[in-house]
Inverse folding.
């Protein structure tokens, strides 16, 4: 605990920081020009989407390749509701509820097969979703897409549209982020963490991995729906392209690059999602996909905890090796650690020939404490016949 | 009746493509315990390599064989220098790595060969022959037969050769395998290489009908994953049967169920999956996973 950490952990300092951030967030939209505001608003939208993915993937350890589908569904529900002239609050609630219900149904089936199956099933969501959106043209406007203008600034505020939209995209995500933070720090978060860590241990503690996976997936879908609503607030137009597969991949890359199992990482992920494609497009549009893939792989290789783990890494390199093992750094995910530990026996313990053995990540998010270097956490299934 | 037979045989042919990709996924999964989401992307890259050889003036069959050889080494290199680092770790991280690999490969294909659809010549003539009153395209039959032959070859390799025995040993228990002197690392590279070969063949066979684009195999990958879930990860035979079933069923559904049509037929395997997962979570042919704690 350095002095700075101690200082920041005092209650009044924390509230002061929150207050300063709030004031900055309230003032900034008035200062920036319209393009900056709309970029910031889009970052807010996708930060929420990444946060949703983080709930199911970062915190609960279930790879989901379909998060963009729920964003698209939320956007379509919003567009439809607005165009039908429904009350906006009702539309908002529906834009959360409908994706949540769909997510629940998907998870009920997918979670039955262990971690990898969720990835294999959810990859279908965007790929089935696009033709489905084209087909249901009376709701979705078909390939043309549909637009809904409902986010103009009300008269009484005297704000420009982009300022108003940014305020909406600050207020709702702020609420979602606070709620999610409380969720993952509380009882449910601990349950998610133990499901991610070791399903067998979870069940022995009376925590049903199945139930919590379904719960996490449902919450992630609901948050995806919120992101969809916000998407319509900012972009006011959606088409089948919104939920295309490559967006889902980018969303996943954003989450990993920002930092899995981290609230701040979700925000960084949202910024990555919006800003980096813009940057790579400036460099060379043809290289966008190459750079995206290369950045993702590079981060996985050298910074498995994502950008958010940079300060911790820096502190560790300055302040000695801490507990002496790279595994000790909480956010380090497995990659490097396991290789270093047991290079000699590449052998591994994929003991069961059946691949869908449950995902047992050895070390999880920042919350998990130091672990020793022994490979035992990642090999729950020692064969007896060795 | 004629249409029906035609649909079934066409379904078997597309099903064979899915089966090849699904087998590649199972092969990698058996050896390393991870799901390679880049398998389809690697197949596309192989098809582009074959296309490039064609451009350089090689005859089609030689171009495909050359691309198969290149793919083998490519698969081995990817295993050695990218995946090995993540194989023993968290399977979820490994999945993300393969997804990154998919993005990278798609990007490389698009960068070198552009996103435009490229025409890839067919290995088989475009004629049809009458079978039981239905006219069935030679291409469908040829595709099915080639994939069948590859599967038989693979089976012979795995059951009848020393290399196959070693590969199976590594798949069942890498630790014991390395204790008995098997070069586990090199065998894993061979496993990935073989999987890449399967993908390369599938890619070369499907490219003529889909035309070459960087995202050509995305759909096929989804079908293959569906087949893997349905058949059960532990059962190669089950996976192939499931892939054929999917190919045939989606074709029939596209024509006989008006709501589904050709655009929504990709939903068919997933409706199937939902039913199967609820009734039989380990897949149609898979064994139940028993985890030792």
């Amino acid at each position: 605990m350095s002095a700075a950490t101690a200082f920041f952990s005092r209650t009044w300092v924390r509230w002061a920081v929150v207050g300063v951030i709030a004031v900055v967030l309230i003032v900034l939209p008035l200062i920036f020009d319209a393009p900056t505001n709309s970029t910031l608003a889009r970052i807010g939208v996708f930060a929420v989407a990444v946060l949703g993915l983080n709930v199911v993937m970062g915190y609960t350890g279930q790879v989901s390749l379909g998060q963009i589908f729920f964003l698209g569904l939320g956007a379509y529900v919003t567009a439809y509701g607005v165009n039908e002239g429904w009350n906006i609050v009702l539309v908002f609630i529906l834009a959360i509820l409908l994706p949540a219900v769909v997510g629940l149904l998907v998870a009920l089936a997918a979670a039955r097969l262990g971690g990898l199956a969720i990835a294999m099933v959810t990859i279908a969501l965007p790929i089935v979703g696009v033709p489905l959106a084209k087909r249901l043209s009376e709701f979705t406007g078909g390939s043309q897409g549909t637009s809904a203008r409902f986010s103009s600034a009300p008269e009484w505020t005297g704000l420009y549209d982009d300022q108003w939209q940014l305020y909406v995209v600050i207020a709702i995500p702020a609420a979602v982020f606070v709620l999610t933070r409380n969720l993952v720090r509380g009882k449910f978060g601990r349950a998610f963490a133990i499901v991610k860590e070791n399903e067998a241990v979870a069940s022995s503690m009376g925590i049903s991995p199945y139930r919590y996976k379904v719960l996490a997936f449902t919450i992630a879908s609901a948050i995806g729906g919120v992101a969809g609503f916000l998407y319509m607030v900012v972009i006011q137009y959606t088409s089948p392209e919104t939920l295309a597969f490559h967006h889902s991949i980018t969303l996943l890359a954003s989450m990993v690059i920002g930092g899995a199992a981290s609230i701040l990482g979700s925000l960084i992920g949202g910024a990555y999602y919006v800003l980096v494609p813009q940057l790579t497009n400036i460099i060379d549009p043809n290289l966008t996909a190459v750079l995206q893939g290369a950045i993702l792989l590079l981060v996985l290789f050298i910074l498995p905890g994502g950008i958010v783990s940079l300060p911790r890494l820096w502190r560790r390199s300055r302040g000695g090796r801490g507990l002496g093992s790279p595994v000790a750094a909480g956010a380090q995910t497995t990659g490097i650690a396991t290789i270093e530990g047991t290079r000699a026996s590449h052998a591994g313990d994929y003991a069961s020939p059946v691949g869908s053995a449950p995902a047992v990540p050895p070390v999880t998010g920042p919350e998990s404490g130091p672990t020793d270097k022994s490979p035992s956490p990642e090999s729950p299934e020692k064969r007896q016949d060795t | 009746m004629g249409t029906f037979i035609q649909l079934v045989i066409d379904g078997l042919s597309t099903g064979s493509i899915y089966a090849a990709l699904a087998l590649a996924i199972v092969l990698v999964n058996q050896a390393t315990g991870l799901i390679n989401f880049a398998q389809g992307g690697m197949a596309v890259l192989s098809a582009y390599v074959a296309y490039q050889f064609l451009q350089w003036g090689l005859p089609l069959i030689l171009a495909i064989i050359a691309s198969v050889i290149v793919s083998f080494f490519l698969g081995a290199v990817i295993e050695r220098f990218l995946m090995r680092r993540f194989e023993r770790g968290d399977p979820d991280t490994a999945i993300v790595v393969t997804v990154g690999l998919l993005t990278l490969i798609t990007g490389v294909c698009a960068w070198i060969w552009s996103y435009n659809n490229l025409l890839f010549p067919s290995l088989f003539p475009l004629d049809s022959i009458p079978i039981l009153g239905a006219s069935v395209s030679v291409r469908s039959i040829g595709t099915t037969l080639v994939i069948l032959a590859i599967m038989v070859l693979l089976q012979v390799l795995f059951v009848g050769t020393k290399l196959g025995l070693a590969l199976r040993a590594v798949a069942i228990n890498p630790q014991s395998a390395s204790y008995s002197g098997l070069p586990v690392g090199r065998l894993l590279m061979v496993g990935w290489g073989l999987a890449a070969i399967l993908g390369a063949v599938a890619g070369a066979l499907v490219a003529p009908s889909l035309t070459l684009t960087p995202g050509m195999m995305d759909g096929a990958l989804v079908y293959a994953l569906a087949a893997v879930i349905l058949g059960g990860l532990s059962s190669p035979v089950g996976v192939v049967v499931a892939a054929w079933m999917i190919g045939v069923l989606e074709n029939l559904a596209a024509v006989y169920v008006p709501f589904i049509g050709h655009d929504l037929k990709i939903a068919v395997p997933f409706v199937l999956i939902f039913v199967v997962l609820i009734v039989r979570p380990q897949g149609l042919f898979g064994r139940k996973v028993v985890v030792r704690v």
